[in-house]
Design brief:
The structure is a homodimer. By secondary structure, the first copy, chain A, is α/β, with parallel strands linked by helices. The first copy, chain A, folds into three domains: 174 residues, FAD/NAD(P)-binding domain (3-Layer(bba) Sandwich), CATH 3.50.50.60; 127 residues, FAD/NAD(P)-binding domain, CATH 3.50.50; 116 residues, Enolase-like, domain 1, CATH 3.30.390. Chain A is 25% helix and 27% strand. Chain A is built from eleven helices and 22 strands. In chain A, the strands form five sheets. In chain A, strands 1, 2, 3, 4, 5, 6 and 17 form a seven-stranded mixed sheet that branches. In chain A, strands 8-15-9-10-11 form a five-stranded parallel sheet. A five-stranded antiparallel sheet of chain A has the order 18-19-22-21-20, with helices on both faces. The first copy, chain A, is globular.
């Protein structure tokens, strides 16, 4: 029989960070992480397996991070939670705990489309064997259709397109790819880039059925058009993995995930949940949030890990911060877009600027960077920001995320002292974050 | 005779931003920028003229930014300010103003060393003809000695070292280069890199005299050692250019710069000052601050430009935010270093982490990134941060700058939702800004 003060169920990003945080906050407690996978893929790295990295074995979370934090590891599948103990499936018996953290993640959404169970139709599971199989099948395929033009869809499209002799088509239901996270003018830049790289992008494309005789052969749309397909990837979202929680009669939330309060405590005070399996509320207004992102999972894991022996931290709710990259183009988003903010009923003022990301323009690596900030008009509070540029966008969006999370105003941002350097950033005069705030302020007067 | 509602004296980064800000806040006012230089070099780009860019003409601030903001330009030298008008030297007569903004910048410090007036000894003036002359003299020189290992010194050293057949030596008074802005462990990394690139670095090196017969031939140190020199560059700091302010009997401050309050107003309510010429106070405690940085000048210019017809903005004081780059190494700093904080009497806790800047480590461009955060121990308030890595450091340090300026605590940072991406940032589990805060928190418990 196994036993630990703190047991974490799930070995992906949320589980690991919850365990590390528990170690930092509770140095005297024993911590055991239980997961069913021998090896754990890096979730965000999965698309890059197929073009840039070369194989699933190049995209694994190293277990050394557990060792160095004195976290024990048990690879086994938990099938039932008997309050105060876990029962394992593999005959290893019980794992007893004082505090349990659920980080069981999510599973891909299977859309209600005829033909989704045909051979050659793949969802993206965070499972090495599944990812190896996908790589083998990609080798045998020529026409690849990706259903869903969110970030997973476009990253997969571009990576697969790097392999010789593939025809890659993205089918997106909405009017733009990435439209759940960016305003249209940013989305269309990504679409244009994908097209220039040889990926076919079809927006406003409603899939009617996936067809084939045993194996997939085509995807048919509602307007009657059809795309040949040897292989189909479904990238339309994910739902919380709540099988264990349900069985344990933990309360579920409005979106069907494990109900938690702001401290990540479930309906059982000894059980916490974090990451994709946990119910979320929005930072904007506090209503239920469907977002599932690494930035959120990490926050929740740092809360859950700290709180297991007395509440130390609370969540503000989901901001929605992430970035993506295709070729040299990088895009980041934090908080609400202009259209999302208007849909929710905010009266907004946006400030957008574009400028070279180095100064002078003759410095190596100079490329344009664009920043759009969206403010609530009356309070001047920042609701969100979007950035398009090159690699530094990955950090620039986090400055914006910090500003949104601390509910800074346009004036707060206009009063920033921001570092600049010819080889690293835009010029001080044109620094885009500050100037986007200034543009918005001049529209508010 | 010229006349404008708002006249800005000085055409470098502070003057331009003051004029643009005045335009944004006072759309109906006429604005005239008066400067004595026909062309204005980009201040931070000056070192890069000599290796990367190829000539001073590649490093100019374009006047189009004035046109597009409807700012008139007069190239002329103002020799006297007669309250409510400027008298010009060139016979163009008076320039009448309602509000005046002084942005007359700084001039390099001339150290009290014998031999500084020898031929071949250069300070770095923001003047194109001077920079052209320096380029010509560099071509004729083989042994170049740079006195001062601050950021200007090391950037010049590396750029000149890119030219064929130059022996470049940096002489730094303190125990480390960059020691006014980084803790020793960061400084020594820069020194090691410079050495590996062929630059000679001598620290704890007190210059006794510059010697030569008309033209410089060597630099002698107090310990008796000597370095051959055909050309010497002095990079030991700058002092406010206050000639006009003195003549006008504007009050000067404790450091000898033009006295201003937090609104950038001088002792004459119709005259504002910003940038290197203006007196500064520290964000930390409010005492006089000797810092002269683009990040500060820009803030002050945005305050002065907004405030000329009624006070809208106030300064928090100087943070000290800037970054530098040599080869692929980039370093950024914001606020107080650990040693500076201790010297000022703070009891501090520092958290340092180092991690790959991409994930997994097989992603192209992967290199280590190090973040050090310094907190006041009792309040947990962030006092400063230092970053070492590659280009994205230029933006990462600005997230830290925003945190310092908003006096965030370690817990605030630990509760961030930060975006991550395989091609752009460190992994979510290891994201260094958050983890440095977490490390510090675990030391505070």
């Amino acid at each position: 029989m196994h036993s630990a003060d703190i047991v974490v169920l799930g070995g992906s990003a949320a589980g690991i960070t919850a365990a590390i945080t528990a170690r930092r906050h509770h140095p005297d407690k024993s911590i055991l992480l239980v997961r069913k996978e021998k090896q754990v893929p890096i979730p965000c790295g999965i698309p890059y397996i197929y073009g840039t990295l070369g194989g699933p074995e190049k995209n694994l979370i190293p277990d050394t991070v557990l060792d160095s934090n004195k976290i024990d590891l048990l690879v086994s599948e938990v099938t039932q939670i008997d309050r105060k103990q876990c029962v394992l499936a593999t005959g290893e018996g019980e794992v007893r705990y004082e505090r349990l953290i659920l980080a069981t993640g999510s599973i891909p959404t299977q859309p209600p489309i005829p033909g989704v169970d045909l051979d050659g139709v793949f969802t993206i599971l965070k499972d090495v064997e599944h990812l190896v199989l996908l790589q083998q099948r990609l080798k045998q395929s020529r026409n690849i259709v990706i259903i869903g033009g969110g970030f997973i869809g476009i990253e997969f499209a571009d990576e697969i397109n790097k392999i010789d002799s593939k025809n890659v088509t993205v089918l997106e239901l909405a009017a733009n790819c990435l439209s759940l996270s960016y305003d249209a003018e940013f989305c269309s830049e990504m679409e244009t880039l994908l097209l220039s790289r040889g990926v076919t992008v079809r927006t406003s494309a409603t899939v009617a059925r996936i067809v084939g005789d045993g194996h997939v052969s085509a995807v048919e749309m509602k307007d009657g058009r059809s795309v040949s397909a040897d292989l189909v990837i479904l990238g339309i979202g994910a739902k919380a993995n709540v099988d264990l929680a349900k069985e344990t009669e933990l309360r579920l939330g409005l979106t069907g995930s494990v109900a938690v309060d702001r401290t990540m405590q479930t309906s059982d005070p000894a059980i916490f949940a974090c990451g994709d399996c946990a119910e979320k509320i929005s930072f904007f207004g506090g209503g239920p949030s469907p977002l599932k992102l690494a930035s959120i999972a990490q926050l929740e894991a740092r809360i859950a890990g700290a709180n297991v022996y007395g509440l130390r931290r609370e969540s503000d709710g989901t901001l929605g911060v992430w970035s993506t990259a295709v070729g040299d183009l990088a895009m980041g988003t934090a908080g609400l877009t202009e259209s999302m903010a208007k849909d929710r009923g905010y009266e907004v003022v946006a400030g957008t600027v574009e400028t070279p990301n180095r100064h002078p323009g003759g410095m190596p690596g100079t490329a344009p960077v664009k920043v759009k900030l969206v403010f609530e008009k009356h309070s001047q509070v920042l609701l969100g920001g979007q950035v398009r540029g090159t690699a530094s966008v990955g950090e620039l969006i986090n400055t914006i995320a910090a500003c949104v999370q601390k509910r800074m105003t346009a004036e707060d941002i206009a009063m920033f002292q921001m570092g600049t350097h010819p080889a690293l950033t835009a010029s001080p005069i044109a620094y885009p974050l500050v100037n986007a705030a200034e543009v918005a302020i001049s529209c508010m007067q």
